[in-house]
Design brief:
seven-stranded antiparallel beta sheet, 21% helix, elongated, alpha+beta, eight-stranded parallel β-barrel
């Protein structure tokens, strides 16, 4: 094998004409056709399948075909891959080498195209340490001798245009590493992958015709920071199964109808999908990705997933994708030691091996690796019209000593524990993403006190649009898990989040991580008898929806799924036959619709002007009360929570305005499974100052309940 097979194979000048060489093992004879006529017969030149011969009187460039006869009745007419110029240009190589090719996925990988007037597929792969790279697939009998690729200078990129390959063909790269070992790898830039456990890449040509131009224009001209956002987090494989066909998962197309209709009815604004990028191990839930540029084939084709996103947009739903640049699995067919060396990962296991998941860590200091990841984020926005990404495990990226003991990690150049390459990568990612695709969401799952995660890079931040508020989640769940008699001693856990609520652009997450690994379900965490558990859960949701920050809820928790989530089974939809579970679902639906109607709950989510405490300190009664306001106070909503199992009243509450205040929502309503304790629909403000407000009223607080109050005048 050689790094430049085109220098020997194909057509070359010779005395009296053009010499043509091709390798066709097991062929009996090979004939050259020019203008549809036999022009020369190639003779065997060795015992390894090399044929050569001269087309007398011919000149370069020569347009010719080869007819290969295997002597068993099989004769094939084909174009010679070694008569074509490279499909990757000099500018592409330059940008790729600098790590600045934002459309690198349009050059590397497999691309169906017309090249020099011939239809075929252009293949290109980055493998700088390889001695040789061959293309193998079902179009050449998986024989690496037939299609060796050429190296393009010092770029490390290998390229070949194959006229006989097209959509649906399966392929891999056969790589000879620096030590002479030969192995096969799937394409890192493949647009489609075989269904596991098979591991080949698949040539894909998109054919979907998008219908969401108006949606994309609205996205481009708006900011997710300033609008309502309630996110329904979904694992596509287990949301709902088809019991009539062996409890199989729904397809992308089935989900496009059923999931979209359900989420729209429930009032959510976005879906967030656990990773849909190709992953062979379903038990990873998608977080161990082997095909970053291909959607999982478990539920359909890449175009089916495009249709899924298109239909969700048609239902008014945004699509956020979980994205995993923190690590990748060790599967031998994928990225690990791709060219026989540590290419995408660090060679030193103190930086390149992830201790928690047994996976490998990307080398963010390498230009081509950063380019692979940044372009991948853009790819899902552009090619699949996704509305944003949630970046998984950011904390593990930021710290060199994450989950490592002393001596198991390497300090940075200044002796610190921060991964400066990862910091630089995340900043670049967000700068490029927001500059090229305005209006998209970038959210970080980051669980430490790293400053400025959701602040612009020009202010020293990482540039994310949002940060998951893991502190709020832990504190709030810790409070709600306490028996009400002990909650007075944990009151600060409910109120502490407001100390730092406006330091980041927070999302309040009740995610899949809280209902797995023995943690049970959300309702299972609640104390008390079954009625109290449901009342506590209803109060948690109403408190969360009124609290500053965008909202995220994992599937099944909207109807109080009782069992811990498992990716191997469906949600327990039969629970909705029980009016108690249906009541909680109705509450979440009403919370979402009321939330969207009241700008006070989202317009100033990240501005202290939109929040004030009414009563943060009534620990003895387990009561908190606060107000929310939109810009210039055009919309106002008060939230009052009584988190003890007894009704309280009359309880005097400060009100900022005179007139009648209406119960916009009461979690103790009989519609939701409560006792209908409340204020008969509303209260009249009295000119009695209270809670630093000019007016007040005596109200009744339901047991383990939350009420929202709004001025009656605002509803007219």
């Amino acid at each position: 094998m050689t790094a430049d097979p085109h220098a020997f194979r194909g057509a070359h000048p010779a005395d009296g004409g053009v010499v043509i060489r091709t390798v066709r093992p097991a062929a009996r004879e090979v004939t050259v056709f020019v203008d549809g006529k036999a022009a020369a017969r190639l003779e065997p030149a060795d015992t390894d399948g090399l044929f050569e011969g001269i087309v007398q009187g011919a000149e370069l460039p020569l347009d010719y075909e080869l007819e290969v006869d295997y002597g068993d009745g099989r004769t094939f007419r084909l174009q010679d891959p070694y008569r074509f110029l490279p499909t990757v240009g000099e500018l592409d190589l330059h940008l790729a080498g600098e790590g600045r090719h934002e459309e690198i996925y349009g050059r590397l990988g497999a691309h169906v195209r017309v090249h020099e007037g011939v239809e075929g597929t252009a293949f290109a792969v980055w493998a700088p340490a390889a001695q040789a790279v061959s293309l193998v697939g079902d179009f050449n009998g998986w024989d690496g001798r037939l299609h060796p690729m050429r190296a393009l200078g010092a770029s490390g990129i290998w390229e070949l245009f194959v006229p006989d390959a097209g959509p649906g063909n399966h392929y891999k790269y056969e790589i000879t590493g620096p030590d002479g070992d030969r192995f096969q790898k799937a394409d890192p830039y493949a647009f489609e992958a075989e269904h596991p456990p098979k591991t080949a890449s698949v040539v894909h040509q998109p054919r979907h015709e998008w219908r969401d131009a108006e949606w994309l224009e609205r996205r481009r001209t708006s900011s997710p920071l300033d609008g309502p956002m309630t996110v329904y987090e979904v694992h596509l494989g287990s949301w709902r199964l088809n019991p009539l066909e062996g409890n199989r998962s729904l397809t992308y197309l089935e989900l496009a109808d059923e999931l979209a209709a359900y989420a729209r009815d429930m009032g959510f604004t976005h879906l967030e999908l656990l990773p849909v990028m190709h992953h062979p191990f379903s038990g990873s839930w998608g977080y161990q990705v082997t095909g970053y540029y291909a959607p999982t084939p478990r539920f359909g084709s890449p175009d089916d997933f495009r249709e899924f996103v298109d239909r969700l947009h048609g239902h008014g739903l945004g699509v956020i994708l979980d994205w995993v640049p923190a690590h990748f699995p060790r599967d031998e067919f994928a990225l690990a030691r791709f060219d026989g060396t540590a290419l995408y990962e660090h060679a030193d296991p103190r930086r390149g091996a992830h201790p928690d998941w047994g996976t490998l860590v990307f080398n963010y200091g390498r230009h081509e690796v950063r380019n692979f990841l940044v372009a991948n984020a853009l790819f899902w926005m552009r090619e699949y019209h996704a509305d944003g990404i949630r970046v998984d495990a950011v904390a593990s990226m930021l710290y060199l000593d994450y989950s490592r003991e002393a001596g198991e990690w390497v300090p940075n150049e200044f002796g610190g524990r921060e991964d400066l390459d990862a910091v630089s990568f995340l900043k670049e990612l967000n700068e490029v993403l927001h500059a090229r695709e305005p209006g998209v969401v970038s959210a970080a799952e980051e669980s430490t006190a790293w400053p400025g995660v959701s602040r612009p890079t020009y202010l020293g931040g990482l540039g994310f649009g949002f940060k998951w508020n893991m502190g709020w989640m832990h504190d709030t769940l810790e409070y709600f898990q306490q028996d009400p008699i002990y909650r007075r001693y944990h009151h600060h856990e409910l109120t502490f989040s407001m100390v730092y609520a406006f330091t980041e652009n927070f999302v309040l997450p009740l995610s899949h991580d809280e209902v797995v690994h023995g943690k049970g379900s959300l309702i299972g965490k609640m104390p008390g008898d079954p009625w109290q558990k449901r009342a506590n859960l209803r109060s948690l949701y109403a408190f969360m929806w009124a609290h500053p920050g965008k909202k995220l809820l994992f599937m099944g928790q909207e109807f109080a799924q009782e069992a811990e989530w498992s990716h191997e089974r469906s949600l327990d939809w039969h629970l909705l036959e029980n009016p108690d579970h249906a009541g909680i679902q109705s509450l979440v639906r009403d919370l979402n619709h009321a939330y969207r109607e009241h700008a006070a709950l989202w317009e100033l989510d990240f501005d202290g002007r939109g929040f004030w405490w009414l009563e943060p300190n009534d620990a003895e009664s387990n009561v908190v009360a606060f107000g929310r306001a939109s810009e210039e106070g055009r919309d106002i909503l008060l939230c009052v929570a009584n988190l003890s199992p007894v009704p309280r009243g009359p309880y005097r509450l400060g009100l900022p305005r005179a007139g009648r205040w209406v119960e916009r929502l009461n979690t103790d309503s009989n519609f939701y499974g409560g006792t209908d304790t409340g204020n008969l629909g509303g209260v009249e403000a009295e000119p009695i100052p209270w809670h630093n407000q000019g007016f007040s009223a005596e109200i009744t607080l339901p047991p383990l309940g939350v009420i929202w109050l709004v001025p009656e005048a605002s509803l007219r």
